[in-house]
């Protein structure tokens, strides 16, 4: 069973930065797509950013130009660099990994709180 463990969340002031990490229990070469999702209280879980095995990226409009997703295949780790954080970025952030169309894995989530 694949395990994904997020870290790097915390409390930061508006305008600050955080870097989230997601460590996988096995080689991330297996994953066609890795992604970060977030869920704020009372809201649905939504895609923040995703990256394919080939390095192609896609971002939600609300985070484009502020967030950067990357993956280090040698270290089996996915990252999300978040700059110029806003109060509305407050949420639990989840790491996601997909193999084909049938297998999908989630981390336990890490809380990001941005004070205004």
Elements, N to C (H/E): EEEEEEEEEEE
Helix content: under 10%
Helix segment tally = 0
Structure classification: mainly beta
Strands, count: 11
Keywords:
single chain, 116 residues, mainly beta, seven-stranded mixed β-sheet, 0% helix
Can you walk through the features of this model?
With 116 residues, this protein is mostly beta strands. Strands 2, 4, 5, 6, 9, 10 and 11 form a seven-stranded mixed sheet that branches. The protein has a four-stranded antiparallel sheet with strand order 1-3-8-7, with no helix packed on it. Strand 4 and strand 5 form a beta hairpin. The protein is globular, with a radius of gyration of 13 Å. The mean pLDDT is 96.
Topology:
Elements: E1 4-7, E2 10-13, E3 18-24, E4 33-39, E5 46-52, E6 57-59, E7 67-72, E8 77-82, E9 91-99, E10 103-106, E11 110-115
Parallel strand pairs: 2-11
Antiparallel strand pairs: 1-3, 3-8, 4-5, 4-9, 5-6, 7-8, 9-10, 9-11
Quick structural summary:
This protein has strands at residues 4-7, 10-13, 18-24, 33-39, 46-52, 57-59, 67-72, 77-82, 91-99, 103-106, 110-115. The protein is mainly beta and 116 residues long.
């Amino acid at each position: 069973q694949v395990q994904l463990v997020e870290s790097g969340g915390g409390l930061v002031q508006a305008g600050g930065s955080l870097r989230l990490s997601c460590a996988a229990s096995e080689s991330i070469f297996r994953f066609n797509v890795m992604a970060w999702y977030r869920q704020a209280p009372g809201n649905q879980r939504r895609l923040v950013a995703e990256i394919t095995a080939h390095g192609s990226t896609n971002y939600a409009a609300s985070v484009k130009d502020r967030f950067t997703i990357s993956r280090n295949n040698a270290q089996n780790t996915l990252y999300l660099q978040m700059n110029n954080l806003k109060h509305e970025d407050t949420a639990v952030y989840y790491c996601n990994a997909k193999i084909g169309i049938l297998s999908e894995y989630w981390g336990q989530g890490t809380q990001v709180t941005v004070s205004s």
